[in-house]
Amino acid sequence: MNFKQLPKFTVQTSKTLRSKLCVVSVILATIFGSGNFCAAADESRRPNIIYIMTDDLGYGDLGCYGQKVVRTPNLDKMAAEGMRFTDHYSGHTVCRPSRLVLWTGQHVGHTGLTGNRPRSLTGMEQTVAQRLKQAGYATGGVGKWALGNVNEPSEINNAGHPNNNGFDYWFGYLNQGNAHNFYPPFLWENRKQVALPGNVIGDFPNGRERVSSVKTTYSHDKMTDAALGFIRANHEKPFLLHVHWTIPHANNEAGRVHGDGMEVPDYGEYGSRSWPQPEKGFAAMVTRMDSDVGRIFAILKELEIDDNTAVFFTSDNGPHQEGGHQHEFFDSNGPLTGYKRSMHDGGIRVPLLVRWPGKVKAGTVSDHPSAFWDFMPTACEIAQLPQPDAFGADTERGCDGISYLPTLHGSGSKQPRHEYLYWASQEGATSVGMRMGKWKLVNYRTPKKRVAAKSQKHGSKGEIGDDWRLYDLNFDIGEKNDVANAHPSVVRKMLDLLKSDGLL
Question: Which of 58, 360, 382, 462 sits a CA distance of 20 to 30 A from 405?
């Protein structure tokens, strides 16, 4: 048959065009007795995945999680149109190890990174982006990359660069420390520096070259524009997009220089409030981020890919108390105890919203206990890929996660569950966190009889003390009442599980 005789189509919307291409594929399959053409058409309709992660946003910072002051209308709408998780956990209490967990599907007991010390990916790990890229997905990311620090162009061949770890496209920061500054002189687009006009680093003795004296171009806005550009450029094929915004993290160095590290172009609707400036800045950051979530949903609808896109929203850890901001001001941890750097739930339990029209029932709430290491198998299942191997002898490729797609589809009875969730930290007074069902176990590095100040002093050494505290989250979500003495068998069982898995 002469292919020139096939119908010709004029330029149409992407959804209409895909429909006609499907018809053509059926015709071709009939002619040639093969399903290859249909298979190609099905491939193009694999769901898109967008994973939005903010930096240092607390469990209680969104209206849909109980926030009463800071406005988040777009995220509240996302919750109303999708699923809200009440028992979702980050990978760690601070940035770099949490991201490593997310991208590799391994909890910190297997990544080995338990604090914000320098660490680069080797290019050999199987990241979420690598797995989906191998399956034909376009892979992009914007925001903070913490696992292959680059300061100068001469360092750009770092094995930890996102382009070496599954990302076709990256725009943002390649140095975690520099990501503190919201007005840097440049960002990175793949392997090239992109100047941010007008920004000038100030000569502040304690600024560590992370505080700008002239602030013109806001990095968050440029990274958001890049995310929207990636969606527009890749909307006709399946894509994975990580949006790892840096707000509402503080510029810690600006906090030390000026007393206010909450950098934002303007305070918007909060400008007239009689609040301290850092609190106006924090609120403005959150609402600005929320507005940009709305921009993402708007472009999905414009391009007619809204129904075929699963959008996730979360935070990398609990709320911060940095740059002049006080997490208590807006009750950022909600009913939880602790904040960033704590093994209590305030440091690790985070919002998770998932919106996927037609696939995730609107207005649903799930109490399924899940964590960052579950995203890799979930993304693979959404993308119709084989599940990654469970963690075993191959530490570079093993996965600790369990897909929560059954929960997203409303099949909670079919949802496999973790025997327990685990975290370890070398920062702060608490060293280990573990959740098993309703039970939460937290280790303090020093015995109870020692003063808290001394416990904090020894917190950076990473030692595990003999002070294990147990909480019943069904009755005590705030972890106020230690019931270890009343339930010694539970403590023993949980510790035995950690020992049997080589985590103690």
Answer: 58
Contacts of residue 154, defined as CB under 8 A and 6 or more positions apart, other chains included, come to none
Q: What is the CATH number of the domain that holds 487?
A: 3.30.1120.10
Q: Which of 372, 425, 376 is nearest to 85 (CA)?
A: 372
Q: Rounded to 5 degrees, what are φ and ψ at 374?
A: -85, -10
Range of the domain at 284: 48-420
User: Which residue's entry shows tokens 């207005």?
Assistant: 363
- What CA–CA distances, in Å, run from 19 to 24, 29, 33, 137? 9, 15, 21, 20
Same domain, 446 and 490: yes
Tens-place pLDDT, residues 19-63: 444 444 434 443 444 344 333 434 457 999 999 999 999 999 999
CA distance 60 to 283: 13
DSSP state of 363: T
Q: Which residues contact 197 (CB under 8 A, 6 or more apart)?
A: 216, 217
- E strand or H helix at 331: none
* pLDDT, tens digit, 9 for 90 and up, residues 296-313: 999 999 999 999 999 999
Q: Are 39 and 154 in the same domain?
A: no
Q: Parallel, antiparallel, or unpaired for β 83-85 and 88-89?
A: unpaired
Length of the chain equals: 504
The per-residue DSSP string of 300-320 comes to HHHTT-GGGEEEEEEESSS--
End residue of a domain, out of 385, 403, 420:
420
Judge whether 387 lies within some domain: yes
Q: Which two tokens stand for residue 396?
A: 């570079």
Cis bond leading into 248, ω under 30°?
yes
Q: Are residues 462 and 348 in the same domain?
A: no
User: Domain for residue 134, yes or no?
Assistant: yes
Residue 311 and residue 459 share a domain: no
List the beta strands (DSSP E) in 40-131: 48-54, 83-85, 88-89
Residue among 52, 56, 54 nearest 325 (CA):
56
Q: Which amino acid is at 140?
A: G
User: CB-based contacts of 130: which residues, under 8 Å, 6+ apart?
Assistant: 165, 166
Mean pLDDT of the chain: 89
